[in-house]
Amino acid sequence: MQHISVNVDGTQYEGDVEPRTLLVHWLRNEVGKVGTVVGCDTSNCGACTILMNGRSVKSCSVLAVQADGASVTTIQGISTGDDWHPVQTAFKECHGLQCGYCTPGMVMSAIDLLGENPNPSEAEIREGLEGNLCRCTGYHNIVRSVEKAAELMGGAK
Amino acid sequence: MIPAAFDYTRATTVDEALTALASSDDAKILGGGQSLLPVLRQRLNAPELIVDCSAIDEIKGIDAGGDKVTIGAGATHHAVMNDPAVKASVELLAQATETVADPQIRHRGTLGGSLAHADPRADQPPVALALDAEFTIAGPSGKRTVPASEFFIGPFETAVGEDELLVSVAFPKYDGWGSHYEKFNRTAQAWSIVGIAAAVRMDGGKIAEARIGLTNVGGTPVRATAVEQALVGASSMAEIAAAAERASDGIEPFADEDADVEFRKHLARVLTKRAVAKAAGIE
Ligand SMILES: Cc1cc2nc3c(=O)[nH]c(=O)nc-3n(C[C@H](O)[C@H](O)[C@H](O)COP(=O)(O)OP(=O)(O)OC[C@H]3O[C@@H](n4cnc5c(N)ncnc54)[C@H](O)[C@@H]3O)c2cc1C
Ligand code: FES
Ligand code: FES
Predict the structure, then answer these.
(1) Read out DSSP for chain B?
(2) What distance in angstroms lies between residue A154's CA and the mean position of ligand 2's atoms?
(3) CB distance from A18 to chain B under 8 Å?
(4) Which chain B residue is nearest to residue A56, measuring alpha carbons?
(5) Domain A2-77 has CATH 3.30.70.3270
(6) What is the number of the ligand closest to the CA of A46?
(7) Residue to probe by mutation, ligand 1, list B13, B21, B28, B35, most atoms within 8 Å of CB
(8) What pTM, to 2 d.p., does this model score?
(9) Model ipTM?
(10) Does domain A86-152 have CATH number 1.10.150.120?
């Protein structure tokens, strides 16, 4: 067992983990962040996307021990009280989800994308979300949601 | 799935990593983990010891002093493709790196991990080969350097020994060269079915020098020397197309679910033509 200490959504969590524990499993099973989901075994789908030290990563492809000392943001840490994150609001308004399974990962990738490029073109949105698969294939509305989010966040011109 | 159990140590210096590697007959280096963790999750491999090298700061830097750009093996794809010196002097590497996987994977995956992994489909190995990069490898008896022409040995096999660590890769500067990475794949995030790395030095509207690397047309990246020679003096699309016909000379591609042998040879020729034309700015 290895001792780790990770800041998750603004709260410091400590624990002992087996080295083989994937970060996503630790977040879900030990910290209770079940909003972050697992969709594949191959690092393809992006459903597990979180921010680690501010940048998007696939939490199924990072060991929990590697997050020791890091700061992590999950889908459960982006709203403030009752105020949704603008990307969440945009996904609701533009109906950017069908079954919703890919949505936590899509939202986290969109936040990363808009942080790097506040006014992305449609092509840049599609490329920026290339690491997130939607099995319901509702990509058009997802792209519209990100365009809307850029507008809400004041980046879109 | 969950990986099989392993011991874990996090190295913070190259020496610590080498000591840890020497302590076990079945140790595996963890770089960005973007190839290794999927392998472990699918239990295609189950090493006894994982030596995590993702926190070794001394192998993460990018240094552009002198006539080379030296990139630490631990520099992430994201760092490499956004680095001003790489973009200015080794543009082909930045272009190929942008096509690797997706943003999340590029935030963790490293240049050194990709080169050491030597997946026959990978996008950066043909760039290192075409641009004559030099690899610095650290081992129990010190550091040694290996030219790109001797680094790639076979699929998933390189000059890096079991008890060694790739520490950096140095690229000569190609200031003023035109370059383009032409990747043929089916979906945005997918691997290359065939990929062509091309860099050209123009002189008075003609190609004076060319460097071409091919990926996924065999077990290792391939340097298209016949095309490089045939391109010298070319100034039109017709001349580029004629030279690109030689891109399938001597290659031994395999068939898989994406393409059969003849289709891969066809792709090598067509994509070489496109890559060179774009690199040279000739339509
Ligand atoms: C869904 C998906 C899509 C992808 N698409 C592409 C693509 O289109 N093109 C492409 O080129 N790649 C692609 N990749 C692979 C990606 O580029 C990986 O980042 C890269 O292959 C491995 O780098 P890493 O740092 O993550 O290495 P790891 O996964 O940590 O290691 C890979 C191997 O290299 C060894 N290793 C790592 N670092 C060193 C070192 N410093 N010295 C010696 N050995 C070392 C490890 O022991 C291991 O055997 C994809 C990966 C995934 C999961
Ligand atoms: S669960 Fe599919 S990429 Fe992480
Ligand atoms: S909404 Fe169902 S997977 Fe995307």
Answers:
(1) --PPP-EEEE-SSHHHHHHHHHT-TTEEEESS-TTHHHHHHTTS---SEEEE-TT-GGGS-EE--TTEEEEETT-BHHHHHH-HHHHHH-HHHHHHHHTSS-HHHHHH-BHHHHHHHT-TT-SSHHHHHHTT-EEEEEETTEEEEEEHHHHEEETTEES--TT-EEEEEEEE--TT-EEEEEEE-SSTTPPPSEEEEEEEEEETTEEEEEEEEEESSSSS-EE-HHHHHHHTT--SHHHHHHHHGGGGTT------SS--HHHHHHHHHHHHHHHHHHHHT--
(2) 31
(3) yes
(4) B104
(5) no
(6) 2
(7) B35
(8) 0.97
(9) 0.96
(10) yes
